[in-house]
């Protein structure tokens, strides 16, 4: 794996410019960084280490990443989450790991981020709608958490449940989706070293609109697979029902791997617009993570299991 | 010129475009400006179509014929925003990749519906002048009935493109249903009344 064993350093020791400078739009980027540095400090995350993931990518700006979101719990418009997610309370927060495992446990969010070393990974994120971003995530591999729970032989899939509380999440007052939001992965996908549980972006805690306080990041799948504001992780025997699959089974499959050759029934997936870029770019198989994950699907008809 | 209400209407119809230009200059179009512009222009195309379709019912319900004077301008603005909307698609979405565009139009129901709606509007825009009205005589109003299927297809276009939350297209569909429903009622009444008129005339 491409993890680089740099020594652990404090967030304050990082020169943000060297990491986040965008080659294009240099001026805009440095302005955004200046603003971002001027933001009041949030509850600090434990120290993390940088990794080589995505070193060659130029991340989107903080503003792009935090104002253009799909998070239907706060409304269906792209700018709704940034406007409405202030009502979400992320402390106290617990995440239960349960189901087919020997050591189920309900984790306090802060205990979780202390128990598992955080790392920064810059991943591409491809939305099923045809746009993409590059985001510097902070988190730890989901597999580490699952290993600790010791899955039994019956554990074949992992189910993720997001928070359900219409008072905090006003979008849940409408049945746009079957709440709470549910997602799922096959166990081997969940254990894959690329699969991340993220608690931060850009070296700070996740903003509410990005799925605070803890969310999934599965970079080779369409964005909606990466459940946000997770409260329960359950090891199960059967493929779990997932929110978008239940809403439109013909359009959103269980796997939902990024695949330029399998179109959404209503639009093409061959290209994508990287937010901030003028021209569209070609979408890559498995969002460009084929070297790492293609082997998970050998022999599978990806048209059938879309 | 400034006393003519048409001048003011003309300027008002340009406001949606002016707003987009203003937002663009002020970097107010959000993280995905091209999507923002495409959608805004689509919304205005549909809105102008519906406003145009509201003129005749408005005239009948208020009994005031002067509304009719604005219909042509409103219809042409619907077409104008439609052209801009289509242009953003052809240029900023597809970058004039014609094979891909052709595939898109034939394969994606929402694009097929939008394109058909637009093509139906072309002859209407082309005949929105006094000369065409005179030349086509009764055929002019027959031809311009194409605006009904165009509007229905436009709403379908919107309905089919949203991912999940159909509130907005449903609102437009409801407005269109009222506008077309009124015509249906009037047409029905006229038909029911017609034989009687003929009898008395005979
Ligand atoms: C009379 C003709 C048309 C009308 C009234 C119309 C109306 C609309 C409306 C209301 C929207 C949605 C705006 C929103 O989401 O807020 C839209 C989006 C769109 N339309 Fe049209 N449209 C028309 C023709 C066309 C044509 C001819 C094309 C292309 C061939 C087209 C391509 C699109 C695209 C690509 C979107 C954006 C989809 C997205 O962002 O996901 N439209 N249109």
From TrEMBL, chain A:
Gene3D superfamilies per record: Oxidoreductase, molybdopterin-binding domain (3.90.420.10)
Binding sites annotated in the UniProt record for Mo-molybdopterin: 69, 72-73, 127, 162, 210, 215, 226-228
UniProt keywords, alphabetically: Metal-binding, Molybdenum, Oxidoreductase, Signal
Protein's organism: Parasulfuritortus cantonensis
Cofactor dependency: Mo-molybdopterin
Pfam families (UniProt xref): Oxidored_molyb
GO biological process terms, semicolon-separated: protein repair
Cofactor note: Binds 1 Mo-molybdopterin (Mo-MPT) cofactor per subunit.
PANTHER family, sorted: PROTEIN-METHIONINE-SULFOXIDE REDUCTASE, PROTEIN-METHIONINE-SULFOXIDE REDUCTASE CATALYTIC SUBUNIT MSRP
Superkingdom per UniProt: Bacteria
Quaternary structure, from the entry: Heterodimer of a catalytic subunit (MsrP) and a heme-binding subunit (MsrQ).
Name of this protein: Protein-methionine-sulfoxide reductase catalytic subunit MsrP
Role: Part of the MsrPQ system that repairs oxidized periplasmic proteins containing methionine sulfoxide residues (Met-O), using respiratory chain electrons. Thus protects these proteins from oxidative-stress damage caused by reactive species of oxygen and chlorine generated by the host defense mechanisms. MsrPQ is essential for the maintenance of envelope integrity under bleach stress, rescuing a wide series of structurally unrelated periplasmic proteins from methionine oxidation.
GO function terms (MF aspect): metal ion binding; molybdopterin cofactor binding; oxidoreductase activity, acting on a sulfur group of donors, quinone or similar compound as acceptor
Automatic annotation (TrEMBL), chain B:
UniProt keyword rRNA processing, yes or no: no
Topology in membrane: Multi-pass membrane protein
Organism: Parasulfuritortus cantonensis
Protein name (database record): Protein-methionine-sulfoxide reductase heme-binding subunit MsrQ
Membrane-spanning ranges: 42-61, 73-92, 108-126, 146-162, 168-188
Ferric oxidoreductase domain boundaries: 41-155
Function text: Part of the MsrPQ system that repairs oxidized periplasmic proteins containing methionine sulfoxide residues (Met-O), using respiratory chain electrons. Thus protects these proteins from oxidative-stress damage caused by reactive species of oxygen and chlorine generated by the host defense mechanisms. MsrPQ is essential for the maintenance of envelope integrity under bleach stress, rescuing a wide series of structurally unrelated periplasmic proteins from methionine oxidation.
Gene symbol of the encoding locus: msrQ
Molecular-function annotations in GO: electron transfer activity; FMN binding; heme binding; metal ion binding; oxidoreductase activity, acting on diphenols and related substances as donors
Pfam families, sorted: Ferric_reduct
